[in-house]
Amino acid sequence: MLENQPVATICRICKENCGILVSENGDSLKISGNPRHPISKGFLCFKGKNFGDVHHSPHRLRSPMLKNGSKWVNISYKEAINVLAEKFDRSKAKFGPESVAFYKGESLKHQEITHYMGHLASGFGSPNYISVGSLCHYAMVLGHSLTYGGMPKPDFERIKGVITWGANPVNSSPLLFSSLKRALSQGTKMVVVDPARTRTAELADIHLPIMPGSDGFLALALIKHAVEEERLDPPDELSVGWNTLSQMVRDLSYDHLLRNTGIDGGLFDKAVSLIFENRPGWVLTGLGLELQPVGVQAIRAVACLQSILDPLNRPFPVSAGLKSLPGFDGYPTMPRAIGAEQAPLYVQMKGEAQGMFVPRAILDNDPYPLRAMLVVGGNPLSTFPAYSKQYRAMQGLDFLAVHDLFMTQTAQLADLVLPASDHLDNLELHDYGQAGKPYLGLIKPAVSSPIGWPAWKLLFNLAGRLGLERFFPWWDNRDAIAYRLSDCTIKLEDLENSPAAVLAYQPGSVPTERWCTPGGKVHYRSEKMEAFGYPGLPDPKSLDLPFSTDSEFPLWLSTGDRILAYQHSQFRQIPTYRRQAPEPFVDVHPDAAAKLDIADGDPVFVITRYGRIEIRVSLSDQVRGDCIRITHGWEEANANTLTGLEHFDPISGFPWLRALPAKLEKKDG
Ligand SMILES: Nc1nc2c(c(=O)[nH]1)N[C@H]1C(S)=C(S)[C@@H](COP(=O)(O)OP(=O)(O)OC[C@H]3O[C@@H](n4cnc5c(=O)[nH]c(N)nc54)[C@H](O)[C@@H]3O)O[C@H]1N2
Ligand SMILES: Nc1nc2c(c(=O)[nH]1)N[C@H]1C(S)=C(S)[C@@H](COP(=O)(O)OP(=O)(O)OC[C@H]3O[C@@H](n4cnc5c(=O)[nH]c(N)nc54)[C@H](O)[C@@H]3O)O[C@H]1N2
Ligand code: SF4
Ligand SMILES: [Mo]
């Protein structure tokens, strides 16, 4: 059989969103990198290349199914939408519109469907649109934005040094990593701050194997050096609170700061020389920082340092200027969103509910009953903390609907499952502006075997059935995209005809004189945080974890470190992917294992204050002797059994998934 002409589209498995070429040959799909894509330039990783096996997996959901007792009954999509609308309307009549939540997971990225779902929730009258932003990336956005108005950009042409801080781009960001590797080969220096000697750390000039959870102290020690030794003072007219911050670090001793981090003074001195001799510097911050109960303050301290290492890295908003969705002039005020009490700054800045507080709304009616939920493109039962509580909460709902490619753990608990189409069988607009790059892209249908519905189709139809068509006056995303592009210079047809499905736009004017905060200054002391009752400086008190390791829980556990072949809980059922990492392990240092008389491959219990799982040991000298590490997304050993909801970052609401006190027990011991 002849291969079809390849279709240029975009991979959206991960946030790199590489350009791909997809061609069909009977039942098999060939996916290759698109060399004409201006950002990825032909790059393709293992996950993207093999996605044809996901598309054609025999495990794909193919029909909507309604649960009848313990049995699934196939129904039509039309019937499914009717059921969904009826259940939502019933919940609204009985408990108010806020009793219905709309959740969007990571697979759909922070793009088009985010806007559609938030809009639908508002149209319905519910403040409870919730996204995976509740535990992904937004704590970082908060920390950096509150300091200087956005996320710092990796300008590899200009920078001389990189600090990779709590991130492992070798596994998590393959495309970014390829640029980083190139920069390193051309002389850029790198320090990695990570308790584990990851593959990224192995490539560093200096690896600082920091004590988990102590990052803010290291950032303060580096700022102290900048103040006292380098005498780097930002200009007064461009900063708020510099004097207060610099006085604070002068009053703290290196001894005190470094003791917290466990980093030896000699190694610190070497890192300091490398970092300050190789300015301008860029700091890549990752989940190791944000999934902590002191995450935003630690990120704030790092952000203060970033502004000193490169005063010209002034992030500014890049956006294609898509037209806002119709139906509202401004979104109406509504009952308080879930989490508004516990994490008000997150809720205000993100304009969403904070998903960490969903279980207590369902189980304790706090702040009011949450009774029905639609989950689109996420598997929160696996990926949110406190597995058993999430399980009880989801079972406690009057109605749960899940839109997904597969019968996930979350879908198994649902009353209604709706088969989704994947990104090879979809039409979606993608603004790379969110990643700071002024390009618009189009995800295009590239296969002739449609399975399921795309999220937009589900949402448009649901809106229609709920009597909310004025918010989505289209049946087809083509029309919606054309509408959203109506104020842009780029038109839908241009994107469709582009050889990379991507076109550049003008990013707007680049500010060179000032920073992108209100007032144009770097906020070393954040008045906004103070207005919300938080410390305006990342002071040592605000950097202390709620509790530390002790004789009962002597090890630091990191949950959720990335595996190259998987995206969170995805692809475990696809043999091509599974062969890359067939089973879950807890990584333990050989010395720590020897003390517990544990050998490679032994089954053990990993135990925290929140829960325990059984898992086999993999001996690894990448982890510190006082640390252990497990990946997330495994049904048979769910890392989130070990995590909880009691301790969270009071600023972002983010959960405590890294630097968690834990212990190991030998199974038969
Ligand atoms: N293959 C693959 N790639 C992915 C994903 C995936 O599931 N699979 N998920 C994507 C998503 S949604 C995200 S958000 C990104 C996340 O990508 P990253 O931010 O790079 O996150 P991780 O890969 O978990 O790396 C975090 C690092 O932090 C370290 N760490 C743990 N505790 C601490 C600490 O207390 N301090 C410091 N300094 N470091 C610590 C860990 O050892 C680990 O090496 O990955 C994306 N990329
Ligand atoms: N312990 C611990 N937990 C973590 C983390 C951690 O580091 N440690 N990391 C957290 C982070 S950063 C993130 S981002 C979250 C991710 O959490 P989730 O969003 O739950 O991530 P996935 O498991 O990838 O779930 C995505 C689902 O979308 C489905 N899907 C794929 N494509 C489509 C599509 O086109 N349409 C629809 N409707 N569905 C589709 C997939 O089949 C999959 O079931 O996990 C978080 N959980
Ligand atoms: S890095 Fe891999 S998974 Fe991510 S978008 Fe590119 S090809 Fe897809
Ligand atoms: Mo994430």
Describe what you observe in this structure.
This protein has about 675 residues and is α/β, with parallel strands linked by helices. Helix content is about 30%, strand content about 15%. Strands 5-4-15-14-13-6-7 form a seven-stranded mixed β-sheet. Strands 20-24-21-23-22-25 form a six-stranded mixed β-barrel. The radius of gyration is 25 Å and the shape is globular. Bound molecules: ligand MGD (2 copies), iron/sulfur cluster and molybdenum atom. Iron/sulfur cluster binds near residues 13, 16, 47, 48 and 174.
Largest sheet: 7 strands, mixed
Strand order of the largest sheet: 5-4-15-14-13-6-7
CATH class of the largest domain: Alpha Beta
Number of continuous helical runs: 25
- Tell me the CATH topology of the largest domain: Rossmann fold
Percent in strands? 15-25%
Cα end-to-end separation: 60 Å
The helix/strand class is alpha/beta
The portion of residues assigned to helices is 25-40%
Average pLDDT: 97
Q: Identify the overall geometry.
A: globular
* Rounded Rg: 25 Å
Number of domains: 3
Pfam families: Molybdop_Fe4S4, Molybdopterin, Molydop_binding
GO molecular function: acetylene hydratase activity; iron-sulfur cluster binding; metal ion binding; molybdopterin cofactor binding; oxidoreductase activity
Family: Belongs to the prokaryotic molybdopterin-containing oxidoreductase family.
Protein name: Molybdopterin-dependent oxidoreductase
